[in-house]
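Hypothesis: this fold can be encoded by more than one sequence.
Test: take the structure tokens below, design a sequence, compare later.
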């Protein structure tokens, strides 16, 4: 960290435990921020394969239970597995694009079989990261984090407008609810003291939820139908291992690992003002893999670190992993008490969107901060331009890779994989200075235009 760079002081350090009442509120805040994504993904898969209402409810239940258990794996850890950082795990959006066609062609058991293989791929990558970390200096990590944030913004704005597929998408009511949440959150954050400021997202979501009820945006019918207690049976849908599932899910494991590397880098930089350590990086990616394989045993979709919760840590400055562990405990309870889970699950998308746009935007800020660690020369600027331009270009125009095989097309349109690959390659192949001399791109313009001659006098400008 340079002397001119302002030091980041967390409200609570990684191993610091806030007062219990405050920690509980902060933990619930993490649950609410990740709830929409975690619940929506299994519902989308269930709808795509024509699952029954009972099967859909089961997929949502195990998504919550597994998210809680795997989050504890990150925050507490087992041996070398787990980052011991305030990382929240949840159902991965990235795998969904592979899971739906697999489930439709081979059955949902193929999704879970392929996910076990994907988990093994991530564990291998996690073990190797101690030797591969040189591939991810601040320049590359910053590009990855920046691309994650940019790629999530459309999702955040879709939630802000009421959620994709909503019949009221973009209505004044939905936009008004999202704006209310955003304004309340910023006011609480700016003028609140102590827990009021730290839990500003939680209070804003509560205000938005209560406002949505008289606005007719909350349907409690699912709450009435949900059971009070249920323990999910493992392997409800079984396991299958067709080659297409192994290839497709294994390829997506690479993309998810790159995303997790970005989240780990972002949370330490934006929350604690330092770079992620080798041990945190390796343990975090391994935990991602173990979580994905474990999720399959309970018929839950692959798990990954949640970018919106990384943004929440950056926004609040609460780096305590114990807070996230408490949030994980609530997720486990919700997974065992479906009726309470349903109360949160029916929270309108627009309410979540009011907070999500800020959380995803914070990831962009974290990426910029990582890039600022490097004294950017013209080659670095070219790396940024090509990586983000091509990577996000494919993501913005998926039809541009329509001629590629499906598995490769999925990786290219993720945005993260092509951006990271280009950044790594271009960073490793940067031009080298000759015999210790300065690169032309690193020499200040003043020295180029008015260098000293051999006789000590200024030579004419070039």
């Amino acid at each position: 960290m340079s002397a001119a760079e302002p030091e980041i002081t967390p409200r609570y350090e990684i191993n610091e435990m806030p007062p219990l009442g405050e920690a509980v509120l902060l933990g619930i805040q993490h649950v609410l921020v990740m709830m929409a994504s975690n619940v929506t993904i299994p519902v989308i898969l269930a709808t795509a394969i024509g699952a029954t209402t009972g099967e859909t409810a089961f997929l949502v239940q195990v998504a919550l239970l597994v998210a809680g258990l795997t989050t504890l794996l990150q925050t507490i850890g087992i041996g070398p597995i787990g980052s011991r950082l305030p990382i929240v795990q949840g159902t991965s959006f990235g795998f969904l694009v592979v899971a739906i066609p697999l489930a439709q062609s081979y059955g949902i058991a193929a999704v879970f079989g392929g996910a076990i293989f994907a988990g093994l791929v991530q564990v291998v990558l996690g073990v190797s990261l101690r030797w591969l970390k040189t591939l991810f200096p601040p320049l590359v990590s910053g590009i990855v984090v920046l691309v994650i944030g940019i790629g999530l913004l459309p999702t955040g704005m879709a939630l802000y407008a009421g959620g994709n597929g909503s019949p009221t998408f973009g209505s004044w009511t939905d936009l008004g609810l999202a704006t209310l949440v955003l304004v309340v959150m910023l006011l609480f954050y700016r003028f609140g003291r102590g827990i009021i400021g730290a839990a500003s997202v939680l209070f804003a979501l509560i205000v938005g939820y209560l406002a949505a009820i008289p606005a007719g945006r909350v349907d409690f019918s699912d709450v009435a139908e949900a059971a009070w207690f249920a323990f999910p049976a493992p392997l409800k849908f079984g396991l299958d291992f067709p080659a297409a599932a192994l290839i497709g899910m294994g390829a997506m494991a690479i993309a998810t690992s790159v995303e997790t590397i970005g989240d780990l880098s972002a949370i330490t930089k934006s929350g604690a003002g330092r770079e992620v350590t080798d041990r945190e990086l390796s343990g975090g990616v391994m935990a991602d893999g173990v979580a994905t394989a474990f999720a399959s045993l309970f018929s839950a979709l692959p798990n990954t670190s949640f970018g919106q919760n990384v943004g929440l840590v950056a926004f609040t400055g609460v780096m305590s992993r114990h807070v996230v562990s408490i949030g994980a405990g609530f997720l486990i309870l919700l997974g065992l008490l479906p009726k309470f889970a349903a109360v949160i699950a029916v929270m309108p998308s627009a309410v979540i969107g009011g907070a999500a746009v800020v959380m995803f935007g914070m990831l962009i800020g974290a990426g910029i901060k990582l890039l600022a660690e490097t004294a950017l020369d013209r080659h670095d600027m070219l790396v940024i331009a090509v990586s983000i331009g091509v990577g996000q270009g494919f993501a913005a125009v998926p039809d541009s890779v329509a001629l590629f095989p499906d598995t490769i097309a999925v990786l290219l349109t993720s945005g993260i994989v092509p951006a990271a690959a280009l950044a790594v390659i271009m960073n490793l192949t940067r031009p080298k200075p000759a015999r210790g001399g300065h690169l032309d791109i690193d020499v200040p313009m003043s020295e180029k235009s008015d260098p000293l001659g051999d006789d000590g006098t200024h030579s004419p400008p070039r």
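Confidence is low (pLDDT under 50) at residues 434-441, 448-462. DSSP finds 19 helices and two strands in the chain.
Hypothesis status: open.
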